[in-house]
Amino acid sequence: MSLELYYKLLNSTIGKKLKEILNGLVPGLIPEPVPVRVPVQERNRR
């Protein structure tokens, strides 16, 4: 299973319910994604 397909499944309605059930049985089994800040380089304006 590709990682893209895995995340599409988890982000669907069925995947969210499945994640709630599995995390209820085993806490922390499927962690929530954490947003990551990516630095953006500013271009020199002339």
Automatic annotation (TrEMBL):
Superkingdom: Bacteria
Protein's recorded name: Uncharacterized protein
Protein source organism: Ruminococcus turbiniformis
